[in-house]
TrEMBL record:
Residues 32-47 have a biased composition (Basic and acidic residues). Residues 32-62 are annotated as: Disordered. This is CCHC-type domain-containing protein. The lineage of its organism: Eukaryota, Metazoa, Ecdysozoa, Arthropoda, Chelicerata. The keyword Zinc applies.
Length: 299
């Protein structure tokens, strides 16, 4: 699977950190060995071509080297946006709370954010009966609420806004699917339909059991979460067949600051960069001169 994202810069100190080397160093060594074998394979292939013989395992070596490069590139892209978060209970429900705009998570204490979510969901904190776990993922600009209680899930997913220091911030809350659940993307739906209307529309006997529906912004696409791991080729919405394709995890990129992990509509960074040339704080009449250094393809 190939994933193309906007590049992000890292300092040499970040690249040389012990944890980074621990995680990626092994793959780098494998890449070097594979690249060395690939070069030798090409030399042998040229020698065989000159002598009129057919190549043997050179194609396999090249394919293995390419696969190793893809694997490392995907790992680097993942590590560049994934925060080092504590492990959550496997059997808990995980709810993702995504602020829409204007909320700088890094500037607000985590305990205050937790209090704001509890107040919005009307879930009191009782000493000695702490079942929930609240985590702030400041890298991706989201809040994670983990709970074993299904009633709490319904309360949290109904949150539309949270209030901090007298100011209200709009949020979107949804239940994260289990790792064993299948996820598919359908296109061609009416953007005016709500999540409740779409859930009812896909409740069709022709469709496999569906746990939930999540709209992709204001577009005509939506993600269907299936109870089983198998994703059907076709689904039916109001009796209309819609093609369903396998959901592929993609890493969000901000076109405002150039960083990975969040979208531009929720960016709160003060460092605005030109998407085309990388210029800091570009004026409105800025003439873009594309630069290769600010764009990268991660495979």
């Amino acid at each position: 699977m190939e994933v193309t994202v906007e590049g992000t810069e890292i300092t040499p100190e970040e690249f040389r950190t012990a944890d980074w080397i621990t995680k990626v160093g092994k793959h780098v060594k494998e890449l070097r060995d594979a690249a060395r074998g690939d070069r030798q394979g090409r030399q042998d292939s040229n020698a065989r071509a000159e002598s009129g013989t057919e190549p043997g395992d050179d194609k396999k070596k090249t394919a293995a080297a390419n696969a190793a490069y893809k694997k490392l590139g995907h790992k680097i892209a993942e590590r560049s946006i994934v925060s080092y978060l504590p492990r959550l209970p496997d059997n808990d429900y995980k709810i993702i709370i995504r602020p829409k705009c204007g909320l700088a998570l890094t500037k607000i204490p985590n305990t205050r954010l937790s209090e704001a979510v509890r107040m919005a969901a009307q879930i009191p904190w009782i000493k000695g009966q702490e079942k929930e776990v609240f985590i702030v993922n400041d890298k991706q600009g989201t809040l994670i609420f983990s709970t074993p209680d299904i009633d709490t899930v319904w309360k949290v997913t109904r949150i539309k806004s949270i209030k901090i220091e007298g100011k209200s911030y709009d949020v979107t809350a949804y239940l994260a699917p289990h790792e064993d659940s299948g996820r598919g993307v359908v296109r061609g739906i009416d953007p005016r339909l709500s999540v409740e209307e779409l859930t009812e529309a896909f409740d069709n006997s022709r469709n496999p059991p569906i746990l939930g529906v999540r709209k992709l912004g204001n577009s005509s696409s939506a993600v269907l979460i299936f109870k089983n791991g198998t994703v059907p080729r076709w689904t039916y919405c109001y009796g209309v067949p819609l093609k369903c394709v396998l959901y592929k995890k993609r890493y969000e990129v901000c076109y405002r600051c150039g960083q990975l992990g969040h979208r531009s509509d929720v960016c709160i960074s003060d460092h605005v960069r030109c998407r085309g040339c990388g210029m800091t704080a570009p004026p409105e009449d800025h003439d873009v001169s594309p630069s290769v250094s600010c764009v990268a393809k991660v495979i």
